[in-house]
Design brief:
Blueprint: E1 6-13, H1 18-27, E2 35-41, E3 57-62, H2 69-78, E4 84-88, E5 93-94, H3 99-104, E6 112-120, H4 127-134, E7 142-144, H5 149-152, E8 163-167, H6 168-173, H7 185-195, E9 199-209, H8 217-230, H9 232-235, H10 240-257, H11 264-282, H12 289-295
Parallel strand pairs: 1-2, 1-4, 2-3, 6-9
Antiparallel strand pairs: 4-8, 5-9, 6-8, 7-9
Helix pairs in contact: 4-10, 8-11, 10-11
Length: about 300
């Protein structure tokens, strides 16, 4: 079977020296990428010495005023002609040399249009922070179809552009990533994949070491609530109480298994904060603009006027 062509899309902002290590790790994959497309936001903070002198790495500069999660990734997809487009976060480092090959394997089934991998916490990550993310990524491979939508509610699956791959042709035929997009451009596209009768695969053998930046749960979930309010055609009217109950049970079990039962009250406080944030986000239209500005993590979303 012919090996698919692969491009990697890497949006970056203020990269530090660890970014060079990420690029080098990507060039050491068993399955080589045809191109590594680096989209740097705000050239003032760009350091050319971070990029190894390798022909497959291409760097594009993007003005900060044009930054939007969906628009930026759509721009990158437009530079690609590969069969498979891999999206990674600038802090997500491949756990081994099998990342690209593991992401590509499910695409042998033509009904699969998106694949995502697991996150493994970086060494030294706080046990609670690790539990909040690890419980989203089971050890078993899973295939998501439209039949899963009633069970999954607004979560669909935890497809995330921290580590995801797309059938590039289908991505563009389906209209690409939503823009402007406050957050969840990946999750929005996942909903469209499933509603089109196509499938998404989670494969834990594709794994990155990644710990999300520390941020307020209330602000993080406020933006997610805004996304749900803006896109009822994808999210519908989720039963937040049931969804959050399932998630809380998973996190608390992970804390017990890690010998950190004493952190459960702290988690419950964070959990309540997140639920309040999501509810406020879904009701953002009734809030004063000043309150929205204080609650959101993504202030650029509210002023973004679109790209050229």
């Amino acid at each position: 079977m012919k090996q698919p062509s692969v491009d990697i899309l890497l949006p970056v902002y203020r990269p530090d020296p660890s970014f060079r290590n990420l690029l080098l790790r990507l060039t050491e994959q068993r399955m080589r990428a045809d191109h590594i497309l680096v989209l740097n936001v705000d050239e003032r903070f760009w350091d050319p010495s971070l990029v190894p002198d390798l022909p497959e790495i291409e760097v594009f500069q993007v003005e900060k005023r044009y930054y939007d999660r969906g628009y930026l990734r759509d721009m990158g997809a437009g530079f690609s002609h590969a069969d498979m487009l891999v999206c990674l976060d600038q802090r997500a480092v491949p756990a081994d040399s099998r990342l690209l090959s593991s992401l590509s394997r499910p695409f042998r089934d033509p009904s699969v249009k998106a694949v995502f991998g697991a996150w493994e916490p970086e060494p030294g990550t706080d046990v609670l922070s690790a539990a909040l993310e690890e419980c989203r990524f089971p050890e078993e491979r899973y295939r998501f179809t439209a039949a899963d939508l009633p069970r999954l509610g607004s979560s669909f699956c935890f497809l995330s552009n921290v580590c995801a791959a797309y059938d590039r042709a289908f991505l563009q035929e389906a209209g690409g990533f939503t823009s402007p997009c406050i957050c969840g451009e990946d999750e929005l596209f996942a909903g469209r994949v499933l509603r089109a009768g196509m499938e998404i695969v989670y494969t834990p053998s594709a794994c990155v070491r990644y710990s999300p930046p520390e941020t307020s749960q209330l602000r993080r979930e406020f933006d997610r609530g805004v996304a749900q309010a803006l896109h009822p055609e994808i999210y519908g009217e989720p039963d937040l109480k049931e969804e959050e109950k399932r998630y809380a049970a998973l996190v608390e079990e992970a804390l017990r298994e890690a010998g950190a039962s004493g952190r459960i009250p702290e988690f419950r406080n964070l959990h309540r904060e997140a639920l309040i944030g999501r509810k406020l986000g879904r009701r953002f239209r009734s809030l004063p603009p000043a309150a929205v500005k204080r609650l959101t993590r993504n202030r650029l979303f509210w002023t973004w006027q679109g790209g050229e």
